[in-house]
Amino acid sequence: MFYSLTGKLIYMEAGMAAVECGGVAFKCQTSLTTQKSLPAIGAEVTLFTHLNVREDALDLFGFATKSEMECFKMLTSVSGVGPKVGLAILSEMTAERVALCVAASDSKSFTRANGVGPKLAQRIVLELRDKVKALSVPGAKGEMPAAGVVSASQNAAEAVTALSVLGYDPADAAQVVAKFDSALPVEELIRLSLRAMASRF
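RE: above sequence
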């Protein structure tokens, strides 16, 4: 229903930001990662949004970047991960880091988020990696090696896989990643690629 909101930031508190658009203020639940990037009160801001519909409420979630919004939607598709836990994860980790941890089967990193125990962390990695495996990712074969011990070509393949976790088309992701030096660390390749892909919207 809502793709994004652009207006004046009129109020902010932990986990929430209010954006006024045309005289109407929209209350958006946010992650700490998004809040750290928001401007001062009174400045114009754009938040990418996701509307969560429940029987007794309509909850609007706002994110500073499209990739964080897509990551939130991906996380909350996992059994046992509700909006509250999704925000908790994104308050501890950037979208790039979430994608990298899933691609590298690093479930331990997810347990730093409030409400995420070892079993849920393992489920997050398992369910999201299954989705990635179902995609045709150029250059990605078999299990992804642990972060930090990959070759240059494997860095690129892992970056493409991680971008696929965030909902980007594998073919598009591969084209963007190919523009950068594959010897760069995986997380840097993801960050640069997300910036390049964001400029298309």
